Amino acid sequence: VEAGRLTSETVSFADRRAEGLRARFALAGDALEIESLDLRAYGGTLHQAGSVVLGEVPSFDLRMEVAGVDAGRLADRAVEGADPTLLEGEVALRGSWVDPPNWLESVRGEGRILLHGGVLPSQDLLTSVARSLVRLVPGASHLLREQPRLARLEQATSTFRFEAGRVHTEDLRVRTDDFLASGRGSVGHALDLDFRLDVALTTRGVHEAFALPDVREEFHEAARLPAVPVQVTGSTGSPRFRANASSFPLATLRGLLGLPGRAGAVTRGVAGTARDAAGAVGSGIVGGVEPGRRHPARRHTDPPTKPRTTGGAAPGGDKGVFEGGHKHKNTHQR
Predict the structure, then answer these.
(1) How far apart are CA 306 and CA 296, in angstroms?
(2) Residues 265-281 pLDDT 10s
């Protein structure tokens, strides 16, 4: 056979099924040239082309493109009632079957991947980050809020390379409504994980991780918290997270949790991340005034007798001023 076509309405491989197979190929000597191979699977399409050399040691050089495939169904982890997580991407692979039991060790390749839509479990990651944060503030553990949680996946992207039986990436980016993550790491052919991520909670993630009073709802939706380093091990089916928040700014954390700050330190809400541990003004709307706009003129009835405090006790036992929308009590009148 020098050239041919192959069609099939259904295709089964292990416990995976596809449909609508259409292939065109040519054979020259011991080289099989796959001009095109297309099939439909899990709501999407797969296109493949390349060559296979059928010599004493078979080798291959293949290119594959995937579009619109339901990743949840493909991995047998679809969440009932949730929108599908769609997989897009492309990969080029080269290798041989020189040692069949360990043939993946010889494979080399590169590609890119995009996931968007659907949901993913976020409870374990949020809990790890939140526990690491409250360790920095004695007496704050009662604010932890641990409950099952599915984060809405907006997008996950990565380029990768395949070598020595592992998929390596240097630019993983994940965006959900609970957290933003970026980092590097690898996945083994046994689906074992080894990643180092920087994880920043979103406003929604803060409220899922901590039991905060309703007043915290004033947080600016565009606020960005400093990232917390997280080590990810285990497997894709049972990942383990270990967060280390030791470098998280304490002033920002105290403002986040609504706790009194140290004397002389300004603690602010998450209406903008503090620029430093002294509590400098961050981004977003702070104290009800937009960036670049001045406070309205104030009339003074009497000069203030004492400097106002922030996050601490004011004269008479009042909690004083908390920037970010809390009540103000001093001798000024607006």
Answers:
(1) 22
(2) 333 433 333 333 323 32
Evaluated on CA atoms 142, 148, 154, 155, the torsion sign reads positive
Pairing of strands 299-300, 108-116: unpaired
**Element (H or E) spanning 193, and its range?**
strand 193-201
In the numeric block, the tokens 């002389």 are attached to: 264
Tokens 């020259």 -> residue:
28
In this structure, what are the phi and psi dihedrals at residue 234, rounded to the nearest 5 degrees? Answer: 85, -140
Please work out, in degrees rounded to the nearest 5, the angle formed at the alpha carbon of residue 66 by the alpha carbons of 113 and 168. Answer: 30
- Joined together, the tokens standing for residue 184 give 């590097």
Name the token pair of 23.
């292939």
User: In whole angstroms, what is the distance from residue 235 CA to residue 165 CA?
Assistant: 15
What gap in Å lies between CA 6 and CA 189, rounded to an integer? 30
pLDDT in tens, 53-111: 988 888 999 999 999 999 988 888 888 888 999 999 999 999 988 766 677 888 999 99
Q: Which stretches within the chain are classed as H helix?
A: 71-74, 123-134, 203-209, 250-257
Pairing relationship of beta strands 16-28 and 3-13 according to DSSP bridges? antiparallel
* 101: helix, strand or coil: helix
Q: Which residue has the tokens 């009339």?
A: 299
